[in-house]
Amino acid sequence: MTLELKQMMDGLRAACPLVHHITNYVTVNDCANMTLAAGASPVMADDPKEAADMTATAQALVINIGTLNERTISSMLAAGRRAKRKGIPVVFDPVGCGATAFRTETARTILREVRPSVVRGNISEIGSLFGLDARTKGVDASSEDAGRDALTLARDAAQSWGCVVAVTGAEDIVTDGRGGFAIDNGCAAMGRITGTGCMCTSVTAAFCGAFPDRLLEASAAALVFIGLSGEIAWEAAKERGLGSFHGALFDVASRMTGDRLEKEANYHET
Amino acid sequence: MTLELKQMMDGLRAACPLVHHITNYVTVNDCANMTLAAGASPVMADDPKEAADMTATAQALVINIGTLNERTISSMLAAGRRAKRKGIPVVFDPVGCGATAFRTETARTILREVRPSVVRGNISEIGSLFGLDARTKGVDASSEDAGRDALTLARDAAQSWGCVVAVTGAEDIVTDGRGGFAIDNGCAAMGRITGTGCMCTSVTAAFCGAFPDRLLEASAAALVFIGLSGEIAWEAAKERGLGSFHGALFDVASRMTGDRLEKEANYHET
Amino acid sequence: MTLELKQMMDGLRAACPLVHHITNYVTVNDCANMTLAAGASPVMADDPKEAADMTATAQALVINIGTLNERTISSMLAAGRRAKRKGIPVVFDPVGCGATAFRTETARTILREVRPSVVRGNISEIGSLFGLDARTKGVDASSEDAGRDALTLARDAAQSWGCVVAVTGAEDIVTDGRGGFAIDNGCAAMGRITGTGCMCTSVTAAFCGAFPDRLLEASAAALVFIGLSGEIAWEAAKERGLGSFHGALFDVASRMTGDRLEKEANYHET
Fold first, then answer.
1. Residues of B in contact with A61 (CB under 8 A)
2. Best interface-test mutation with B: which of A24, A34, A50 has the largest number of B CBs within 10 A?
3. Quick check: A70 and C47 CB within 8 A?
4. Rg (Cα) of chain A, in Å, rounded?
5. Rounded to whole angstroms, how far apart are CA atoms A118 and B153?
6. Residue B18: its chain C contacts at CB < 8 A?
7. Predicted-complex ipTM score
8. Tens of pLDDT along B89-142?
9. pLDDT of A148-173, one tens digit each?
10. Among all residues of chain B, which has the CA nearest to that of C139?
11. pTM for the whole thing?
12. C108 CB-side CA count, 13 A
């Protein structure tokens, strides 16, 4: 199957979905700016008194536990349930799952209670959420720690959870448990700045908000979008360094076109 | 009336007022850096145990409800009251007012209890705070949703609330209910990165902190400052994209001069 | 004594220590990115239910009270105690100490209960924490307010607290109460963007995490690293402005080498 990347990109920008985020305070500014660069509109609201109401105004919901705290767990659950009831996609990023018992248990509670539409994480996080005995080193990917390969894990998790699962790393895997894609866009420098994983999750929610009936393709398009933006940005900035790379990532993303996505996407079906 | 923009710019930089912010975690870093670029000094402190005490050390207070949460509402109220008692300006940004009942009610409570010196928002937010049946799409401007034009709304609100009101959009309106200004500096790209509204509020507080007896002119100067910075930054960065635009905004603001403000300001009295 | 800067830089990058931060939401993104640029790995987690557990996975801990709030004080104390028990360095940044009673008292509680390995602040903050009657203007340095010179203060505090103390300003002082260093790298523009102090603390923790038995030298290396990065970045960006300076700081830091540190370090023993 060929991804309709031009249609996806143009459709996202035409729809400009509102993406409600309950997310961490480390990368939230990057998530907002990347959501805008992709062509969607971000809103962040995490108080239990309004989280679900804000979700009711949105076309997609991000739940990101990067700086998980007790105050907002109930917001995450309430917003997640409202999103499901409303029929809009919920994209869950179990940041750092496996690093502490609190984080792992909360991630599992969210998975069970909300039943997200898409789960995106690195192989340690997804492995830990799935119950494998992986260890997460902080919130960064550590491919060697994982006991299985990403493709098998993603498929098993997607089937078990009944949703799309994206395992990102040197190669990104995304699957609904039946078919899927392996995406080779991206570059190692994306692991040397904070927030590329979180931004990937936000952009996934943006594409899913525009194409709620095509979650697998929308998620794959998001992975291509972020990976290709990173590749091009690094090529432009690598002689200057990580600050320029960070800025260039938003430059490239904001000027990305459907044609360029189609031309430079690097993926195959799995 | 002609705005004394050179006097305002030089006066702000000479005074270097301390601007206490109780604000959101999405754009707080941008607010701090823009406050510094304008020539003031930022401090952020939001715990109920110290918010009012921090205000007591400052020359202006920003209350921004972007990521409103129950924990800091009492801080906002206590800091606001302390500022009023001390006689320093309070600039209120009712981010997303109208998007949820919690947000609208809290914004109205702050308005009523604190009686801010300046309120700045887009037309949906100000309309909703004023009691019009506008709908806010997330926290972004949506001029078509508003039932009246910005000038009438700003005047009515300013008279009703007894303060300066700034309604920002393609054209910015600022009024004390009698006289006022319409400002045409700015560019559409400012809506494509997060934080330009919040930064406008922070800079308004910076100018008001330096000129507490001239709140209307100080607020107008802030709108010119941010709008012109955005215009120049976009001209410099538009071929690169939104990441470069974001960086250029701080470049231009930090090098803005009173002479340039006077020369390139684009406003008229209303 | 000559600092072994090349050994320190290379050793940090080889060790890639995980640096757990309990820090403020204003500069947290900069702290994460600077930690990465220096060659370490950041993780941020502040909930009482997981803070100490996250520390248990790390090689160093940062406690930064920039946006101090009651919810995370117990996290700071628990994480600090766990770090000490585990034998990893705790670097404490008493941001704004002296500005409010709550901040000063909490900073003293952390000092007493955790007994940090390194304390870094400006002269007002360290003076206030030490009990001098200094006044902090917001969170920025105000050297004139201090009643003693930085070197005497740093020595006295280091002896009294039994730890390394760094007092940063136009000249940076770092001492363990016996020997120490005065470092002249850096530039005034570092005070015109937010976060350089916090980033200095994060990088101090990174170096200390890699060299837990050589805290004085590691802290000095961190001050040279940040100061020199700032100097070079300002030279490259000063004609553009503060936005470019901010980006260039990460560019330079991410490309810093041990050889360059050795060649351009500007310090003497005290």
1. none
2. A50
3. yes
4. 17
5. 43
6. 137-138
7. 0.94
8. 999 999 999 999 999 999 999 999 999 999 999 999 999 999 986 444 445 444
9. 589 999 999 999 999 999 999 999 99
10. B43
11. 0.95
12. 12
